[in-house]
Amino acid sequence: MKNKEISKILYEIADFLEIKGVKYKPRAYRKAARNIEALTEDVENIYERRELKEIEGVGESIAEKISKYLETGELEYYERLRKDVPVDIENLTNVEGLGPKSVKKLYNSLGIETLEDLEEAAKAGRIADVKGFGEKIQEKILENIDAARMGRERKLIGRIFPLVQDLKKRIQGKDVFERVNIVGSYRRRNPTIGDIDVLALSDDSEEAMEEFCNLNDVEEVLAKGDTKSSIIISGNIQVDLRIVDEVSYGSALMYFTGSKDHNVSIRSKAKGRDWKLNEYGLFDSNDERLAGEKEEEVYDKLDMSFIPPELRENTGEIESAERGSLPDLVERVDIRGDLQIHSNYSDGSASMREMVENAEEIDLDYVLFSDHGPSLKIAGGLSEKEFDEQSGEVEELNDEFDVEILLGVEANIVEDGLDISKDWCEKCDFLSVAMHNRPKDATDRILSVFENYPVDIWVHPLGRQFFSRDPLDIDLDKIVDKTEEEHIAIEISSQPERLDLDWRNVKKYRDKADYVISTDAHSTTELDFMRFGVSQARKGWCNEDSVLNTKSIDKARSYLNG
DNA sequence: GCCGTTTTCGGCCCGACTGTTTTCAGTCG
Ligand SMILES: Nc1nc2c(ncn2[C@H]2C[C@H](O)[C@@H](COP(=O)(O)OP(=O)(O)OP(=O)(O)O)O2)c(=O)[nH]1
Ligand SMILES: [Mg+2]
Ligand SMILES: [Mg+2]
Ligand SMILES: [Zn+2]
Q1: In what residue span(s) does the Polymerase/histidinol phosphatase N-terminal domain sit (predicted)?
Q2: Are residues A265 and A412 in the same domain?
Q3: Number of independent structural domains in chain A
Q4: What's the CATH code of the domain at A208?
Q5: CB of A193 closer than 6 angstroms to any ligand 1 atom
Q6: What is residue A182's predicted lDDT score, i.e. its pLDDT?
Q7: N or C: which end of chain A has fewer CB within 10 A?
Q8: DSSP secondary-structure letter at A334?
């Protein structure tokens, strides 16, 4: 999958064009780069379908460049730009405070091409002598150069969640803060989070900033002003704080929640009316405030319904809000069952009894235990004999608990079908299937299993895992059609590393597909992962009706078995 | 370079912080 590679080239082109002082094109290249980076589908497939231009921000020219690169492995336009200023633009601009313009100056004056050159020049004191630079910048470069070498990897929302909650509590705990909201990609429930953005209300912003920059785990203060500060806390995590007045709080929430593209779009709309939208409010052409204290008011004045943060990705939500046709999104309280949990019969850490007790505590009506089939021994795969034992225990537990306990298997899609017999399939309340390797004919294998076995749920459909596994290269159009035909539900996994099916595809297929949101919990605490799956369903524009486990077990059963 | 219930050409979001600068450019959100 070359998405990352291509978006990197586009980002670099943007930087090189900025070096040359070209207007607007850098923004265009960056926008295209961002959208390609965010794709779940392999850009090469989109190229093969001749649909590159459907990607937001990709037009004639960029589509042609991507095609050339995919066909020849080279891009002359990019190579030419790089020849003019032959620097390691990606790494150099990774140094906090260094952008394309500074990199060019340093190249022209000192011939700096790499981070090593930069460090050497800074240590020798040569940077301070360059016009436009000085001692402080030179010092800052030396301080930040190692961070640039390491890079800052994005964090998974499900993993950073406790830390964010704790940080929020710590800030809220200080009297000088009257209101605190976590915003940015976290509020939008992005699967991954680049930094933690915080909006706050305080009548003494100076003192508030002081407290913020002196939190006990602050490692570096990147910037500190009256309304805005940035710090690095332990774990190499950046935290940005913005403080505004109450009259601006709503518009500041909008600004700081983003996304950037959503902001730009919506600000352009305001501008089209001769108004102005910024973090302080919505203003008419006489600078009279039209709204600002509440987000709802700002959207309302712009003749839009309120846009839930999860939808603010500039993927059609603005037009939809203008038409008043945004979906009524599914909520966590709508969820009535969890159709993938595990116990110590396989690689789970808790007994079935413990899992059920906890499920009852969080008001679930039903749960499905579905451990791996026999071919996945490393993941604690069960033999049919072990399954039968488990089945016996399920029967006992069902007598004892109100929660309806269902038993199934996560069967593995293998070369000639599933790794369990059809007889075994019939013993399952629900049959879940998944692919755990990546053969060339994956699409056909999946389709054939859907046709030939009584499949109920297709779990972690793309097999994606953040930072380690790319999504499977399969024909989702075809497979989703088949799930509709066969009454098979598609899982949205709540596991932080998976969140699979991903929200963009969830959105794409939401009218056809029936989704189930599952935790894949391997311990009692992981039952709480449900919130992350629900967030992804919301990002995918799902209403309650598109999610099967918001329904009673009888309704779910009659659909899946029908 | 992209894009269109104002446009197929003429626009392209808006502001804070920093360092170096005598008034602002660069970078970042
Ligand atoms: N209007 C406007 N708002 C911006 C711009 N850049 C960032 N913002 C707003 C929207 C962002 O969601 C918010 C926080 O910025 P971040 O850089 O932290 O981005 P975000 O949190 O969305 O993603 P992240 O996971 O941190 O990479 O600030 C911009 O250029 N213009
Ligand atoms: Mg952020
Ligand atoms: Mg930020
Ligand atoms: Zn699996």
Answers
A1: 337-415
A2: no
A3: 4
A4: 3.30.460.10
A5: yes
A6: 98
A7: C
A8: G
> Tell me, what CATH number does A279's domain have?
3.30.210.10
pLDDT tens profile A180-204: 999 999 999 999 999 999 999 999 9
Residue closest via CA to ligand 1's atom 19 equals: A184
Ligand 1 atom closest to Cα of residue A194: 25
Give yes or no: residues A238 and A252 share one domain. Answer: no
- The pTM of this model reads 0.96
Ligand 2 is a single-atom ion; what residues have CB below 5 A from it?
Answer: A 184-185, 195, 197
Containing domain of residue A198, as a range?
Answer: 155-243
CA distances from A459 to A403, A422, A478, A500 (A): 22, 19, 17, 8
Atom of ligand 1 lying closest to residue A259 CA:
12
Q: ipTM value, please give it.
A: 0.96
- CATH of residue A366: 3.20.20.140
A201 & A263 share domain: no
Does residue A379 sit in the same domain as residue A503? yes
Q: How far is CA A108 from CA A27, A88, A92, A163, A169, in A?
A: 24, 14, 14, 44, 48
Residues in chain A, pLDDT under 70 = none
A6 CA → ligand 3 middle, Å: 24
Same domain, A457 and A555: yes
Chain B footprint positions (protein CB, under 7 Å): 1-3, 6, 11-21, 25-29
- Shared-domain flag, residues A314 and A355: no
At A379 the pLDDT is 80
Question: For residues A58 and A302, what is the distance between their CA atoms, to the nearest angstrom?
Answer: 28
Q: Are A26 and A14 in contact (CB under 8 A)?
A: yes
Atom of ligand 1 nearest to the CA of A278: 1
Where in A382-421 does DSSP place strands (E)?
404-414, 417-418
Last-in-domain residue among A263, A298, A323:
A323
Query: By alpha-carbon position, which residue is closest to atom 4 of ligand 1?
Result: A260
From the CA of A184, the nearest ligand is 1
**What span, in angstroms and rounded, lies between the C-alpha atoms of A194 and A154?**
5
* Cα A526 to ligand 3 centroid, rounded to whole Å: 28
Q: How far apart are CA A255 and CA A278, in angstroms?
A: 7
Q: What is the DSSP string of A216-253?
A: TTEEEEEEE-SSEEEEEETTTEEEEEEEE-GGGHHHHH
pLDDT of A130: 96
- Are A433 and A549 contained in the same domain? yes
Determine phi and psi for A345, rounding to 5 degrees.
-65, -30
* CB distance A432 to ligand 1 below 6 Å: no
Distance in Å, CA A430 to ligand 1 centroid: 43
| Predicted pLDDT of residue A259 | 97
To test the pocket of ligand 1, the residue of A157, A260, A298 to mutate (highest count of ligand atoms within 8 Å of its CB) is A260
Q: Which of A243, A258, A284 is the last residue of a domain?
A: A243
The CA distance from A82 to A239, in Å, is: 34
